[in-house]
Amino acid sequence: MYKCCIFDLDGTLVNSIYAIQRAVNLTLDAWGLGPINVEQAKMFAGDGYRPLLERSLSACGDEKLEHVQEAGRRYLEIFKECSMYRVEAYEGIRDMLAFFKDQGMHLAVLSNKPHERTVENVTEVFGRSCFERVYGEREDLGIKKKPAPDGVWSIMREFGVEKEETLYFGDTNTDMRTGANAGVDTIGVTWGFRGREELEAFVPRLIVDYPSQVVEFVKEVNGIV
User: One biological-process term from Gene Ontology (predicted)?
Assistant: First the structure.
């Protein structure tokens, strides 16, 4: 029986691609580079802000990443101002979360984006009471970012749940590897930043096109009529 659901944020719970794209392009503008388009932003995001910037800089002509250090500082400042730009929950997400809460399941968010921006996104979109735990990147606390399993395991310990009681949700190969590394059942979602083919390569427990499919899956596994 599943008792705990841990969600990636960007591309899984919320469509935040326009905020990510905007912050990157405003950062690159300092050197007359860019812009990156939405599809590039979808491919570059998912592993934290530094890989995002490295990929963006390289794609825009700075192959030697001469500006990466300054870009990192600039991006973090800019992202404070635009991290909520056009951010919204994907259709059906709120109903899915309401179902889980009605079942008394533990809900958490685990993201690779800066911690404060993760909390801001979740609070602004879902309020303060939807999730019991909301975590962004916390490597300064010794918790390695995804795809390392550290974050998933830390949340499981906090909730007192076992691997077989935990579901992890995500939209990228990083998320699929995170779930596999943590040894928990993983659900890939196709409404986010990457396609079905990328997810299928990692053979998750389930790949879904709509949040309602997750509800039906959990009902079946947990024996809910």
Answer: DNA repair
DSSP 1: -
**DSSP tally for the chain: helices H, then strands E:** 10, 8
Strand 88-89 versus strand 14-15 pairing type: antiparallel
Which pTM value belongs to this model?
0.96
Give kind and range of the element (H or E) at residue 114. strand 106-114
Sheet of 133-137: strand order equals 133-137, 106-114, 4-7, 166-170, 185-189, 206-208
3-state secondary structure 133-192: EEEEEEHHHCECCCCCCHHHHHHHHHHCCCHHHEEEEECCHHHHHHHHHHCCEEEEECCC
Identify the segments of the chain with pLDDT beneath 50.
none
Specify the CATH class of 4-15+88-222 in words.
alpha beta
